[in-house]
From TrEMBL:
GO biological process: pectin metabolic process
Gene3D superfamilies referenced in this protein's UniProt entry, alphabetically: Vaccinia Virus protein VP39
Protein name listed in UniProt: S-adenosyl-L-methionine-dependent methyltransferase
One GO MF term attached to the UniProt entry: methyltransferase activity
Superkingdom: Eukaryota
Keywords tagged on the record: Membrane, Transmembrane, Transmembrane helix
Parts of the chain that traverse the membrane: 34-52
SUPFAM superfamilies per record: S-adenosyl-L-methionine-dependent methyltransferases
Entry keyword Transmembrane helix: yes
């Protein structure tokens, strides 16, 4: 499903660019109706070919990956900080962020008043800048594989934010990682996940997790929370929505507030 939607842009190009070309050829070659019929049939074959390619799971995913331009929820997390402060209040005093770009998110959190912050970066930090390297050296950010239990005691943080990384975990690993994220949080867990159809294309992410992102729908996540006994925090959801509309915060990712 995700693969098919990811293909849509190329199909749209064909729809808008391909067919007018056929039409203009048609006008020039009025003397040869057979030729224009042939062109229309050819165009139809190309369109059908593209739709089939789009629905083919594996080849579709490869195509989406080679298109580059991976999106992530990192900027949604950065922009959410004032909204989260309004919704969570005192629960923002000790925050753990888990996901890509953790250095950027942790350094922004550290600039907030009354907020301590730590980060777990699931990817290699080889090309990290000097301020990121300094955060790693001081122990604020660590690189860790989130398929394994996090090296923190229960309720070490008041709030845990996780972005993108869960999109790469199969249900088998989600079953371990999500309860572990809830374990280290005292007041809640905020999940930023991609919507189906969004492109996730970082090759380094693929190498790390061994599978491309599997972007799940809101209903999939909500069903998953119910199955695994995680509850959404309704009062925080209301406050977060209110603060979002007051600040015109429009995230491109879906956000869930789960009780720990
Ligand atoms: C994950 O946990 C749920 C709820 O405990 C269970 O129904 C499901 O089968 C598990 N999935 C995997 C792949 O282990
Ligand atoms: C919902 O979140 C708030 C803010 O962190 C917290 O105080 C409250 O205990 C949470 N409620 C539940 C049911 O977890």
């Amino acid at each position: 499903m995700a693969a098919r939607r990811a293909i849509n842009p190329s199909r749209r190009v064909l729809d808008s660019g391909g067919l007018p070309l056929v039409n203009s050829l048609h006008q020039k070659s009025r003397s040869s109706p057979l030729l224009s019929v042939g062109l229309v049939v050819l165009a139809a074959f190309i369109l059908i070919g593209y739709s089939f390619r789009g629905s083919g799971g594996i080849s579709g995913e490869k195509e989406a990956l080679s298109m580059g331009q991976g999106v992530s929820c990192s900027s949604d997390v950065l922009n959410a900080i004032p909204i989260l402060k309004k919704a969570y209040g005192d629960s923002m005093r000790k925050v753990l962020h888990v996901g890509p770009d953790s250095c950027a998110i942790v350094s922004k959190l550290l600039k907030e008043e009354d907020t301590e912050a730590w980060g777990v970066e699931p990817y290699d930090l080889e090309d990290a800048d000097s301020s990121c390297k300094s955060l790693v050296r001081k122990g604020f950010v660590r690189v860790a594989d989130i398929k394994f239990p996090l090296p923190y005691r229960p309720k070490s943080f008041s709030l845990v934010l996780v972005s993108d990384s869960l999109d790469y975990l199969s249900p088998k690993y989600l079953n371990k990682t999500l309860p572990d994220l809830a374990r280290v949080s005292a007041d809640g867990l905020v999940i930023f996940a991609g919507y189906p159809g969004q492109q996730r294309a970082k090759v380094s992410e693929l190498a790390k997790f061994g599978r491309p992102a599997k972007l799940r729908s809101s209903s999939w996540w909500i069903r998953y929370f119910v199955q695994t006994g995680l509850e959404e925090n309704e009062s925080v959801i209301k406050k977060f929505e209110q603060a979002s509309s007051e600040s015109s915060y429009k995230p491109s990712c879906q956000i869930f507030h789960v009780s720990s």
